[in-house]
Amino acid sequence: MANTVGRPRKQSPRRKGATAREEILDAASELFTRNGFATTSTHDIANAVGIRQASLYYHFPSKRDIFLTLLMGTLQPSLDLASDLAKTDETAAVKLWALVAAESRILLSTNWNIGRLYQLPVLVSEEFQEYHEARRKLEEIFRGLAAQIVGDDDPRIDLPFHMTLAAIEMRDNTGTAPYPLVDDALPAPSVTLADAVLDVLHTDLPERRTERMLSLVAQVSREEN
């Protein structure tokens, strides 16, 4: 009999995802957001996917790496967008509006409410330093853009980032993305939040802001590919 290549699944795939890695992340998202980090084991995640625990380690070396991957997936796209926005001659208002819309869109587009992970006590641990550094960097970008609009001494410069995180409370955690990502539209809550941020800063809303934001995001995607 020929040797079996790789480790077989214990049963047919039962998670959302085009690859085993995506299925693992989907299962981990559900377990982490519902049960927390400490009480979720790699065995639990593997069982939810329908694979052997050893197979999970082929894709992720540890539970911590799965958790960090989920966290960074909510931050890195906005950091990439911010980097590209910095190279444009768009106004601070346009850049800030685009970042609020982009970050809130990410939080609204995942199957499970991954933003809930921000609130878990385990995140005080230094083992998630990469997440903390990325989050601080993104907060500073939001704050810097707001400061360009209202000045460094205005206490409102801290509001845009935290207003964006309201998207976490504006969705459920049922395993179905309330607003799947599409190329030609933004979730209504993302537009509402981005508009509200500029309103709080008492600055006019940019013309064609949705179209301009989507164009910028598409440009980033093309450059990455």
Rg over C-alpha atoms, rounded to the nearest angstrom: 19 Å
Total strand segments: 0
Overall domain count: 2
- What helical percentage do the residues reach? 55-70%
Detailed description of the structure:
The protein has 225 residues and is mainly α. The protein has two domains: 20-61, Homeodomain-like (Arc Repressor Mutant, subunit A), CATH 1.10.10; 70-224. The protein contains ten helices and no strands. The protein has helices at 20-35, 42-49, 53-59, 63-73, 76-85, 92-109, 129-150, 159-164, 188-200, 209-224. It is elongated and about 55 Å long. 33% of the residues are buried. Residues 1-20 are annotated as: Disordered. It holds the Pfam family TetR_N. It comes from Corynebacterium lujinxingii. Residues 41-60 bind DNA.
